Structures are given as structure tokens and as C-alpha cells.
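Reopening this one. Same input as before:
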Amino acid sequence: MNLMEKLLTDQKESIKKIIDPNNNAVSSFELIMRSFNYFLSSNHSLGKDYDYEKREASMQIYKLLGWNDEKSFDVINSFYIIFKCSLVYSNVLSKNTQTSYCFDKGVFCYRNKFGYTPIGKKKHIEKINDEETTCHKAIYSTFINEDKNAKKIEKLAALSHTVANFCPVPNAKFNIMKGCMAYDFLPLFVDKIEDCICNNTSMCCEIKQDGKIKKIDADIKEVTKWHEWLVNNKDKYALSDYYDVSEHKRLIGNPLFKNQKLDNPLPQNQEEVGVCLDNMIERIYNRADYLNMLSMKGRKK
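Same output, byte for byte:
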């Protein structure tokens, strides 16, 4: 297997026997649903802090890329957030079906007999994987077979846990803040960091951890270090599709759909969901090409 193939190999396949012991998953989408279900459970066998980015198979590829000294890694394009958007704006999961979704002030909600109610990732994934629920039937028999963006969701499911979608980051807190402050979109988080630098402000958010609410802070000194890291490592880690650096070292995020910005972070219709998915997929392939090229140049020196 050459480097390009390794960069685009779905790391979930290497532990398929663990996350899908009954071998029921016949598609990349089904496999990522099994993976989420497995790792969101409290008693899985691979440890509390297990990540595909830190698996030995990924680490071997990092060595080829010269990343072996890095300590923290993150997924660049998050699957679950755009999956939720695709459900909300699905052309087949309409308001008249038993299963439909909406965002209420940014909170993901699921329709049941009582109306729309918030639903967290763990419970949502459990419902999707439970063959007895209407949620499972709607997702597997209707959405993934008939929705306009279903093939793109399937493709992103296959690419989301590839090294071409993994990247070193300054520290673990960077990952947490990207999720809290920018819906896990790197271009938006870049804009948030630049906004903090311009206004000399810190970041603060709350996350739920082990059933408790935990406050996470990043003061202006830490945000400045993140800013410097992004400026210095854009080319090294092949991130030019995600943001630009001006001649005055200002960061400018490259949106994933036309109107994406900090005060409009999520797609607002099915067309924008499709554009966002197209750009996520294209950027992963582009990055694989660029990383492969960088590696070849390094070997020639």
C-alpha cells in the first residue's frame, strides 16, 4: 500500500471486529454508527481515552510524514455535526414522518409523540443503532437510501477517520474549544481565535464530563500561542484549504459553505448542507495529495 492509499484508509476498518462483532455493518455509514455506539458506551474494552488519531496504525503514517514527535491530534472535519444538519434539512425526513429533527437555538432536537425534545449524541446514536426504534428505521430505510445528500454522508463516513483528516494540534484544550466555540469547524475556530486576538479576549465554555458540568478556560496568552501555532504550521500540516494567513499574520478561515461565519455557523438548508459536505470531502482528498507530495519532496532531499 503506497502513502496515498494509507492516508485515505479508514482506520475504523482495522478494529471492525471489535466495534462491529456481529459483522452487521455493510457500509461506511453503518460502520461509523457502530463505532460511535461502541465508544460512547461506558464499558468498552479499548480504554476511556481511545482515539483513532492515536492508534498505532495512524502513528506509523505520522512517522512517514515527520509528525512522530507531536503529542496531540484532532479530526479536522467532524462527521456528527454535519450529519445532524443533514437530518434537520433532509428532503425525506419531513415534518410529517414519525422521525424528524430540528435545531432549537442551536440545540439538536428529536421529534417524538410529545413534540420536539433535545437529544444528546449518546442517546441519539443508541436510537439509530436500536433496530426496534422508529429512529433506526427512518435513518436506515429512508434517509440513507433516499436523501439527496445521502451518498455524500456515506463518503464522509469513510473519510472522517483517515489520516488525511487527522492533524496535530497545539494541545487537547484546542480540540475541546474547537467543539465548544465553533461547532467543531476548523475555519470557524480560526476566525474565533483571530477575533480573540483582535479584541484581547479569552475563551470560556462549559462541557459535560462524567455526568458533571465542567468549565474550560483559555486565557489570551494561550489563545495567542494557538494563533502563532496556526500561522507557523499552515503549510507544514497542509491546512491551506482551511485558512489563510495575511501578510500581517492575520488568520482568515475559509468557510465550508457560502454564508458560514461565527454568527451563522451551520447550514440553513439542504443545499448548503450539500455544499458543506462537498467541500469537506474535497479538502480531505486535496490534503492527502498535498501530504503525499510533501513526503515525496522530503524523501528526495
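So the earlier flakiness isn't reproducible anymore. For the record, The chain has a mean pLDDT of 91.
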